[in-house]
Amino acid sequence: MSYLENFKYEISGPLEGRKLVFLHGVMGSGANWRRVVPHFQETYRILTYDQRGHGWSFKPKSGYAPEDYSLDLKMILDELNWNKVVLIGHSMGGRNALHFAQKYPQRLEGLVIEDIGPQGNFAAMEKTIRMVEMVPVPFANKFAAKQYFDNEFERVLAENSKGPDAVQRAHILAQYFYTNIESRADGTASWRFSKDAILSSLRLGHFQPRWDAVRDLTIPTLFIRGEHSGDFPKDEFEKVLALHNPNIRGVEVPSAGHWVHFDNPSGFISVLDEFLASL
To answer: Structure pTM?
Structure first.
């Protein structure tokens, strides 16, 4: 069996095109990039996939550190015979991409890290863990799950959020969580992902700072931050740029939070277009 068969994946674009790989964030899937990929697929050869423990890919009981995700990517690229790619990672995917760049720099033409820094955001990690833990899976059915996320889950999130857009953000997050619920053979509904994998990914991804990986970057790298992001604090973003690594540049995308490519897809695409043209 090929290693790639462990994953739900999609490849699009011309065979001879420059290779782009997109890595989604925690609890996400390759489908998270559906607003972005169409803009690039006429010119670039693109790979998106559900990382281990996520979506419809395989779900081993252990192995959810950035090192494990990076090895998956290396084996996938070897199988596809893609010698050099531009790697784009969001959130957890950005952490995994950063480790890949440190371990296999010769395989990268460029690196894009979307809204995550090298420090490790323990507050954001703990908040996400609490949200996952509070969901009372399994539900009797998908309708019961929908009722829960539309009402109790969204209400609790709104009450514990700050800012004028707290209600709107709670609604978006509740809907995102609900998209990760699937029906089971017995009619009940539960997580599409492996809960243990998600919790391990969160803890191991934030376990240690990775400033050394950023300092040592030898390939063109773009750090993207959402203007209103709480996951990649502005002072950490500025600290990355203050390292004066000539291979690193940074852009803050307006009207966006942590999900830059979702909150402001045109802004994200424009920034990525410019970076790719510079390589």
So the answer is: 0.94
CATH superfamily of 3-120+209-278: Alpha/Beta hydrolase fold, catalytic domain (3.40.50.1820)
pLDDT at 163: 67
Q: Report residue 158 as tokens.
A: 């709104």
- Domain extents in the chain: 3-120+209-278, 122-201
Positions of the chain with pLDDT lower than 50, given as ranges: none
Segment 87-134, tens digit of pLDDT? 999 999 999 999 999 999 999 999 999 999 999 877 778 888 999 999
DSSP the chain: --GGGGS-EEEES-TTSPEEEEE--TT--GGGGTTTHHHHTTTSEEEEEPPTTSTTS---SS--SHHHHHHHHHHHHHHHT---EEEEEETHHHHHHHHHHHH-GGGEEEEEEES--SS--HHHHHHHHHHHHHS-PSBSSHHHHHHHIIIIIHHHHHHT--STTHHHHHHHHHHHHHTTEEE-TTS-EEESS-HHHHHHHHHHHTSS--HHHHHT--S-EEEEEETT-SSS-HHHHHHHHTT--TTEEEEEESS--S-HHHHSHHHHHHHHHHHHHH-
What is the rounded CA–CA span in Å between residue 160 and residue 152?
12
196: its two tokens: 């243990």
CA-based radius of gyration for the chain:
18
